[in-house]
Amino acid sequence: MRKVVAAKLHGIHVTEANLNYHGSITLDPDHCEEAGILPLEFVEIWNKNSGARISTYVILGARGSRCCILNGAAARTCQPGDQVIICNSIYIPEGQITEIAPRILTFDQANNVVERLSYHVGVDATGRYQFSILNEAGDRQPIPLLTGVG
Question: N or C: at which end does the chain have fewer Cβ atoms within 10 angstroms?
Fold first, then answer.
């Protein structure tokens, strides 16, 4: 079994940090449902501002609120306004990697969804893996790669 990305909220902004609540991350149910993140599911949170990485579980906030609230100990890792990446994962047999299409949502400063993307893995005629990122229209998106400079 391999642990792989199932969904990602990329670049969502922290709206609050609540040290006195008993743990978790509170997210807008609209964002969770669209990406495929379940309530009580464990997620990884990566803070783009500080580099902090934590794991906690999801609770649902008010629908349409666009909230991203770090609670309890997690509140120590993020400040309101920080940009974070929230990622859930699943375990699958390696042979099923071509059967999934993880959903990725990207966000603006107000936590409105800007892009809806998906990851796809295929296998070419020689048996090598091929990776692509598609937008919601099904168009291939550029894959960020270093070009050897610096």
Answer: C
21 is catalytic: no
Query: Has 91 been annotated as catalytic?
Result: no
Threshold 0.85, pTM exceeds: yes
Percentage of the residues of the chain whose pLDDT score is greater than 90: 92
**Strand ranges across the sheet with 103-107:** 16-18, 68-71, 25-27, 53-60, 42-47, 83-92, 2-13, 103-107, 113-123, 129-135, 140-141
Catalytic pick from 57, 65, 89, 118?
57
State how far the Cα of 49 lies from the Cα of 74, in Å rounded to an integer. Answer: 15
